[in-house]
Amino acid sequence: xxxxxxxxxxxxxxxxxxxxxxxxxxxxxxxxxxxxxxxxxxxxxxxxxxxxxxxxxxxxxxxxxxxxxxxxxxxxxxxxxxxxxxxxxxxxxxxxxxxxxxxxxxxxxxxxxxxxxxxxxxxxxxxxxxxxxxxxxxxxxxxxxxxxxxxxxxxxxxxxxxxxxxx
Amino acid sequence: xxxxxxxxxxxxxxxxxxxxxxxxxxxxxxxxxxxxxxxxxxxxxxxxxxxxxxxxxxxxxxxxxxxxxxxxxxxxxxxxxxxxxxxxxxxxxxxxxxxxxxxxxxxxxxxxxxxxxxxxxxxxxxxxxxxxxxxxxxxxxxxxxxxxxxxxxxxxxxxxxxxxxxxxxxxxxxxxxxxxxxxxxxxxxxxxxxxxxxxxxxxxxxxxxxxxxxxxxxxxxxxxxxxxxxxxxxxxxxxxxxxxxxxxxxxxxxxxxxxxxxxxxxxxxxxxxxxxxxxxxxxxxxxxxxxxxxxxxxxxxxxxxxxxxxxxxxxxxxxxxxxxxxxxxxxxxxxxxxxxxxxxxxxxxxxxxxxxxxxxxxxxxxxxxxxxxxxxxxxxxxxxxxxxxxxxxxxxxxxxxxxxxxxxxxxxxxxxxxxxxxxxxxxxxxxxxxxxxxxxxxxxxxx
Lengths: 167, 447
Hints:
The structure holds two protein chains of two kinds.
Chain A lengths: L8 H21 L3 H5 L2 E10 L13 E6 H12 L11 E15 L2 E14 L1 E16 L2 E11 L15
Parallel strand pairs in A: 1-6
Antiparallel strand pairs in A: 1-2, 3-4, 4-5, 5-6
Chain B lengths: L2 H5 E4 L4 E5 L6 H12 L4 E5 L8 E7 L2 E7 L5 E5 L14 E3 L2 E3 L6 E3 L4 E3 L22 E5 L2 E5 L7 H5 L2 H9 L6 E3 L4 E5 L3 H8 L5 H4 L1 H9 L13 E6 L2 E7 L18 H15 L1 H8 L1 E7 L3 E5 L3 E10 L2 E11 L7 H13 L7 H14 L8 E3 L14 H14 L23 H7 L1
Antiparallel strand pairs in B: 1-2, 2-21, 3-12, 4-5, 4-7, 5-6, 8-9, 9-10, 11-12, 13-20, 14-20, 15-16, 16-17, 17-18, 18-19, 19-20
Helix pairs in contact in B: 8-9
């Protein structure tokens, strides 16, 4: 007689987080930005450090993106308009997320990292790859995002030109 | 054939200025630019504050050459070509750091920070005629600084930097004097690129006319955050030829500036501190100069490829051509040294910087899109030959006009023809072509 391997709480948590990240990526790939924005808590932040200082913090370094919740909303509004010229018409994107790891759990808060490759196609294809850092808060059977940071592994944005999409 | 006769039309009689689009598409023009402009004029390399300690270095590609910009062990700022004098390998292969020795990974020849060859492994293999003193690292022909901003010049005969800067020095002072303890480059660089000729980025960086259209979403953002209260700011102001191809566009601050124009974006609790900064500058420099420093937008071109835009924050932007239809950008935030790491003042500056500027900002990506779309349009340059830069020739140019862009092109055309810099333009360029005053109704139709 064989016994099924134990599925621990840790595994379940990781599956929950993975599912959340996949759903989030699907919203971004579909340009459902208002739905994406609804995932954030009121005190949320979204950051992308400059490529030459991947560990950069917004208090001490020039970032590529350092958004409060209201700046995230402004970013969404801009991208939803027809006047964000770099993204009109919208580029096509596809996000591949993997290597999801739970770093810590404390009460309702979960700290997780994941690898990403974001492919963007507009006239040509460029790839943004790097690592996400998340702080998620339990919200019923899903999560909300309190902190979201995309650390790029590319040395410069020379191949991409700009960072006009949400990573 | 001359650039000024055939490729750049400067018709002062009729107030018409046009640029032939082959200047953005021809590989021959691109090669000649490198030899004519980038081999002979002062090019920005970096700032003192990037290499504060002895042994600090950064490497940088400037005018197509690989450079190491460093402070040697004795504290002297230097530049070396980043190529081993033995067989050419790249000597310094890190973007920045601190070292006492540059050791080539190819055959381990090693140089001290002053550039002296100090190690040649297997030294007994060299003949008596082998003179180590001839193999020190090579420095560019000239290097010089203006108040912490370091430039290189590959022509030993070039005029001194201070003379070259001409009227631009006054505007650099207006930026640099905002600091009490000097300026520094904040760590973190915006490194990006544009698939368009580099001269389009020069034009765009000092162009006020495009702001309401290209940056409509930014203007909306400013309004949404309670700012943009000076509604006519961007349409007033002035454009000035500073001599030697340098030019500036100025206007009253149209939205928030960390030094020193408060708008609600900064939050109510920052208001007093920002007003104190303005008061301090007025106290130190007088009412007129203090306000001009603190409460004015400035887009400054240092010919040929350095932009210092003192707007929502201060950016130092270096334009490096990489092909006829492509250039790379390096942009940094310049901040007063007294705005310490972790301070609210620095945070405000960086937040303000990022709203507009940079490849992830709310405005710069749309500039890149505009320039790339121009370059794509130039594929029809044989049939659609000219771009127009005539705006404001028949009046005293305001900040929606194009004198500052014409200043670049006049210098460019003159140098490409092998002549020196042209006469500085002062006053109205084409008074004979002035448009008679319209009635308000007619003016409305003309818009």
